[in-house]
């Protein structure tokens, strides 16, 4: 993620914040500018930008910003929408009569906005689903499980359902340990499930890429239910690390794709943060690789250098974590088959195979 600066005091401001921690100026994300803006409040629904490149333009806070503080995105003041581009994607939220649910909703929206920021930076920002038959839109439902009514996180036909209890860190960590996973986060859920959505976009818009997909990931036409049953009964193959990013990726080509897609997004977001932070590692030429940037990773042409930087960065992140007694920040291994899958994704992100809002492909 880029580094943002307050237009008043010029201190760093963070993507999830609603005011500058230093000068207390109100701030919000302006999607059209891909920027965190600093504002002067003329009224509750008229905020004037203080940022140089769009100074004096007027905005209003998203309804969920001003009424629930679960959002921090802005909308042009004359826009007829009351919800921002992120909140328009949310179709169902937990019952807010339950006090803890608003906090769960807040955490879910924070993770969703982080995912959407990267999607926007990659020029694959999804648009709201217009109807049940809309093949290219996206919709979210955040559902709380009830007695006798479990909620399964998943994707189907442009609808992503998330079990809202995953926003409870104790529940999520308990599930992670019970499932034998070494990584489980809300952001990871959003990125994984988006992989299923973007696979459908690619398959619908660019069916000519499906054969190439099958070369790297396998034939997705195999029975998914049987594959899932086999995975939970038998577990992954003993040599799974040779070709897959995770044990769950071994379940079915769809899950291999979604897991690898999520890791591609992890890689791009983290490397972009390192790029804007100016992080550099001078290796020793033997066991410690160099880390340096010649271009921004997002939209970068040299995937081999991107992969080299990712391996160097995660090695050092893991070493730093171990130095203070924490688990590895990135407990995964990139083998050549996994790198080939990441190369496939990068190749077709650049050619916009996952862009969902082309006018030539109406709902």
UniProtKB/TrEMBL annotation:
Q: Where does the signal sequence lie?
A: none
What residue stretches are annotated with the Zinc-ribbon domain?
4-97
What InterPro entries would the database entry show? UCP012641 (IPR031321), Zinc-ribbon_6_bact (IPR011201)
Q: Name one Pfam family in it.
A: Peptidase_Mx
Taxonomically, the superkingdom here is Bacteria
What protein am I looking at?
Zinc-ribbon domain-containing protein
Q: Which organism is it from?
A: Acinetobacter indicus CIP 110367
């Amino acid at each position: 993620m880029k580094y943002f600066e307050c237009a008043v005091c010029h201190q760093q401001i963070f993507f999830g914040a609603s005011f500058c921690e230093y000068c207390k100026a109100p701030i919000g994300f302006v999607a059209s500018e891909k920027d965190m803006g600093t504002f002067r409040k003329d009224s509750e629904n008229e905020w004037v930008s203080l940022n140089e490149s769009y100074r004096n333009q007027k905005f209003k806070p998203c309804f969920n910003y001003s009424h629930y503080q679960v959002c921090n995105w802005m909308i042009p003041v004359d826009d007829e929408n009351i919800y921002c581009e992120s909140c328009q994607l949310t179709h169902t939220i937990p019952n807010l009569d339950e006090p803890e649910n608003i906090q769960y909703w807040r955490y879910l929206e924070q993770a969703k906005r982080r995912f959407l920021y990267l999607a926007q930076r990659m020029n694959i920002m999804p648009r709201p689903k217009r109807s049940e038959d809309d093949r290219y839109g996206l919709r979210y439902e955040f559902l709380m499980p009830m007695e006798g009514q479990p909620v399964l996180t998943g994707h189907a036909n442009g609808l992503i359902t998330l079990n809202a209890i995953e926003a409870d860190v104790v529940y999520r960590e308990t599930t992670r340990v019970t499932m034998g996973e070494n990584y489980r986060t809300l952001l990871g859920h959003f990125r994984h499930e988006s992989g299923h959505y973007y696979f459908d976009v690619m398959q619908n818009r660019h069916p000519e890429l499906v054969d190439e997909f099958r070369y790297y990931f396998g034939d997705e036409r195999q029975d998914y239910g049987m594959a899932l049953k086999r995975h939970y009964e038998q577990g992954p193959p003993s040599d799974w690390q040779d070709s897959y990013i995770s044990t769950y990726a071994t379940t079915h080509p769809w899950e291999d794709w979604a897991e690898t897609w999520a890791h591609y997004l992890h890689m791009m977001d983290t490397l972009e943060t390192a790029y804007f932070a100016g992080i550099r590692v001078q290796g020793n030429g033997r066991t410690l690789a160099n880390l340096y940037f010649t271009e921004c990773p997002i939209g970068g042409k040299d995937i081999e250098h991107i992969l080299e930087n990712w391996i160097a960065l995660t090695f050092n992140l893991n070493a730093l974590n171990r130095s203070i007694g924490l688990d590895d920040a990135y407990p995964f291994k990139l083998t050549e088959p996994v790198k080939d899958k990441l190369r496939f994704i990068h190749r077709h992100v650049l050619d916009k195979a996952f862009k969902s809002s082309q006018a030539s492909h109406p709902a």
